[in-house]
Write a structure and sequence with these properties.
The protein is mainly alpha-helical and 186 residues long. The protein has helices at residues 6-26, 30-53, 59-82, 88-111, 124-145, 153-185.
């Protein structure tokens, strides 16, 4: 494997790590889940840093990185809901946002033959939202280990729900603008 493929390989490793993370979570092995999730987080930070530092950004990487994040977070959230740590209403907000993003991206990239060279760039609100969603998973894992610090759940749920809804609305507007531009070019 050449060095230029390292960022993409790290994204793939993050996708693969999803399986043991979910298994450990479903078995309520919270410390192991936390450690694996932290390894996945480090791989996320490293792949972005390496890609930017060494000018290794690619279209594949711009797709793989957010896909890896979505797979890891979505599967973690479903497992957290399954073990009754995450409320269904928050899982649904997160799910709807992800559907908006995926549907918009598919529609845009399938509908515009010139989009093949575009890199997918997340918005600032989306980056903040991803950080908050990761923090939510970490918080929920930590309060399973240290029960005495669980008094902030409702506030944390509301913050993540708000950032998720704002990010979904931001992407919805982005896709509407892109579709309007696509149609005006035809």
């Amino acid at each position: 494997m050449s060095f230029s493929m390292l960022p993409n390989a790290l994204s793939i490793i993050r996708i693969i790590l999803t399986v043991p993370i979910v298994i450990a979570l479903l078995k309520e092995q919270y410390l192991l889940t936390l450690l694996l999730f932290l390894v996945a987080g480090v791989s996320d930070a490293l792949d972005g840093w390496i890609a930017k530092q060494f000018s290794l950004q690619s279209r594949l990487g711009s797709i793989l990185d957010p896909v890896a994040d979505k797979v890891l977070l979505t599967c973690s959230f479903v497992a957290l809901y399954w073990i009754e740590v995450l409320p269904l209403w928050l899982l649904m907000i997160i799910f709807v946002r992800d559907v908006i993003i995926i549907a918009g991206a598919l529609g845009y990239f399938l509908g515009d033959e010139n989009s093949e060279s575009d890199l997918l760039e997340p918005s600032l609100i989306s980056k903040v939202n991803t950080v908050l969603q990761i923090a939510l998973v970490l918080y929920l894992l930590i309060i399973q280990i240290y029960v005495g610090i669980d008094g902030f759940q409702d506030m944390v749920f509301i913050i993540v729900a708000t950032s998720t809804a704002l990010s979904g609305a931001d992407y919805g507007l982005l896709w509407v603008k892109k579709f309007i531009l696509q149609e005006s070019k035809k």
